[in-house]
Every structure is written in structure tokens, then in C-alpha cells.
Design goal:
This protein is an alpha+beta fold. Helix content is 43%, strand content 15%. The chain folds into two domains: 5-204, Glycosyltransferase; 228-335, Ferric Hydroxamate Uptake Protein, Chain A, domain 1 (Beta Complex), CATH 2.170.130.30. Helix 1 (5-17) packs parallel to helix 4 (53-65) and helix 4 crosses helix 5. Pfam families: Cobalamin_bind. Disulfide bonds join 64-106.
Length: 336
């Protein structure tokens, strides 16, 4: 079983923000340090952590937010990965680079490293900030809509938000797409940015007893959209070992309000039942892992890319994206 580096890191970040008593945190911090070491055992064979650099960076960030020192060797692994461009693909690269940059900035700010290494981390964080500004699209989005809050956190943490033009454009794009952030995990990424904060601010919180100001909120169910629509579903495998490029191409009728996930379920129900898929539950929602028996695997460095024809990557997950009538959706097995 792979280490739960990212999940435990996110839990510790959330735990620190709630100002709990110290006793439960100490044990969890020890486990996170253990997971970071177990995670890196994969690099001896694969050249990268068993999980991902995203989770590994989250682990370092969580330890720093809890004011815990991290071995220099652990930090050097992230510096080397950034220097050699190993931090991921497309929008995922922005997520990972941002998490790593936040970890670097935290370590330098909290003075948890020596002077020489602190200078290297500061320079690396600013390189990441510039890289994200250069990755911004004409619509203001950096990577994809879910990676944009991560990039904005880096601009805030590194202090360039007032001078970096990309910050204002990205914030405007974020405000136009807030409906995309419908899960607890994605809300946790965007809410600090909307208040001009980053995860680094958790480290300097002054914990004090506060009155309970939380009140339940009545959320109305989404309005039903009458009618139906038809979506063209295409599955492609351009990799050399696939026997042909287009593995599936079929019109799928669905209700008008159907999401991409609903389209996949509808395709699986069509005769002769030749469409099959699997998903994995994540904090961000269901993640597509297998289509027509072809599995996307972390260790093989491939993933199922979601596109709308002719070649536009989707900015939302399968449960959130709602295609238009007549739209062509492409599931493409891609490498990174």
C-alpha cells in the first residue's frame, strides 16, 4: 500500500487552522515524516516519489506550517525536481509547482533552514511565480480553473500580487468561475485567496478561544433542466502500444442537465454494453482511472485527459462539467 502523504498533509493543514490541543498533532506529524521517507523509496526505481511530487510537496508544506524542521535531503529532492522540470503535466504542473513554491517560501520565512539554502528556496519560489505568470492563458486562467487558486496563493505568499499583472487577470477569471468549486477540497483551495490569504498564513495564526459563530446554511437543490441532449463520446489512445487511435465513437442521449459522469454512465447502459469505465473517489470528486479496460497509472506516467472537440482541455472534473447539446467529448489516454 502506498503512503497517504497528501491526505495526511491536507488533514494536518486543516487541523492547524482549527487550533486544536497539541497532543494529537505530535503523533500525526511523526507519521507524516515517516510517510515522506516511505514515499521517496519509489525514487530508487522510478526517479520520483511513489505518490507524486504534488503530495510530497504538500507533506513538506504541512510540516513547515506546524513549525517542524525538514531534513535538507528532503528539500533538495524538490529543488532538483523543479530544476529539471519534473513536476508534472499541463494544469497538474501548475498545482505541483505552486505547492512546492509554497513549501519553499514557508521554510524560508519560518527560518527552518540555513542562510544558504534559504536563498536557494527564495530564488526557486520566485522562478515558480514567474513560470505561472507565463503559463497564464488569454482567459486569465493559469493551468486550469482548479490550479488557478494555487497560483494565486503563490503570488500572495511571495509578495508579488501588487506588481504582477497576472494576479488581477487570474483573480477576475476565478470570480467568473466560482461555480466550479463545489467540493470541500476545491473550496479549501479558493477561499483563502478570496480573503487575500495563502496556506502560509496558517503558520502565523494566533490561536485563541473564539465564540461559535458558525450557523447552518440552507442550500437549495439545483433547478431541474427539462428536456434531453445528445453528446458524441469519443475514446482515443494515441500511444504507440494501442492497436488503433479511436477506440470508441458513439452518440449518447442524456437528460439536459447531465454531467460528463452522467454521460459515461449512460454510454455504459447502451446496448451492446461495450463501454466500460472506472473512477476513483478523491477529495476533489471522482477521478477517471480506466476506460475500455485501459488503466491510467501513476507509475506509468499516463492519465485520461478530458477534452471537448476539436482539442480543448476541460477545466472541470467529470462530475462537474456539463456538456452542451451536440458537443463532442474526447477521453484521451495521454502521457506526462
Amino acid at each position: 500500500e502506498w503512503p497517504h502523504t497528501g491526505r495526511l498533509a491536507l488533514y494536518l493543514l486543516g487541523l492547524r487552522a482549527t487550533c486544536p490541543p497539541l497532543s494529537p498533532q505530535r503523533s500525526l506529524v511523526t507519521w507524516l515524516k515517516y510517510y515522506l521517507e516511505e514515499d521517496w523509496r519509489g525514487s530508487r526505481r522510478h526517479g520520483h516519489p511513489l505518490t507524486s511530487y504534488y503530495q510530497y510537496g504538500l507533506g513538506v508544506l504541512a510540516l513547515c506550517v506546524h513549525h517542524k524542521r525538514v531534513r535538507e535531503e528532503v528539500i533538495r529532492r524538490l529543488l532538483t525536481a523543479q530544476h529539471h522540470g519534473r513536476l508534472g503535466h499541463s494544469g497538474n504542473a501548475v498545482d505541483t509547482e505552486a505547492v512546492v513554491a509554497l513549501a519553499f517560501t514557508c521554510l524560508e520565512r519560518r527560518r527552518l533552514v540555513g542562510t544558504g539554502l534559504a536563498a536557494e528556496l527564495r530564488a526557486a519560489a520566485h522562478r515558480a511565480s514567474r513560470s505561472m505568470a507565463e503559463a497564464q492563458g488569454p482567459d486569465g486562467i493559469i493551468g486550469n480553473i482548479y490550479s488557478t487558486p494555487w497560483a494565486l496563493q503563490v503570488f500572495l505568499a511571495t509578495g508579488v500580487c501588487q506588481t504582477e499583472p497576472a494576479f488581477g487577470r487570474a483573480m477576475a477569471a476565478l470570480l467568473e468561475n466560482l461555480e466550479a468549486f463545489g467540493t470541500a477540497a476545491t473550496m479549501a483551495q479558493v477561499l483563502p485567496v478570496l480573503h487575500g490569504r495563502s496556506y502560509l498564513d496558517i503558520a502565523s495564526m494566533h490561536c485563541r478561544e473564539e465564540s461559535d459563530t458558525l450557523t447552518p446554511m440552507d442550500i437549495e437543490p439545483p433547478t431541474e433542466v427539462p428536456g434531453n441532449k445528445t453528446v458524441q463520446l469519443v475514446v482515443e489512445c494515441p500511444l504507440p502500444w494501442c492497436y488503433e487511435l479511436r477506440l470508441y465513437d458513439r452518440l449518447v442521449p442524456v437528460p439536459a442537465a447531465a454531467s460528463l459522469l452522467d454521460v459515461l454512465w449512460a454510454a455504459a447502459a447502451l446496448e451492446p454494453h461495450d463501454f466500460k469505465f472506472h473512477t476513483q473517489d478523491t477529495p476533489q470528486g471522482p477521478f477517471l482511472t480506466q476506460v475500455l479496460g485501459l488503466e491510467a497509472r501513476q507509475e506509468k506516467r499516463n492519465y485520461w485527459q478530458l477534452l471537448t472537440a476539436p482539442n480543448m482541455p476541460l477545466q472541470m472534473g467529470i462530475a462537474d462539467y456539463r456538456p452542451q447539446d451536440g458537443e463532442t467529448l474526447i477521453l484521451r489516454l495521454s502521457e506526462w
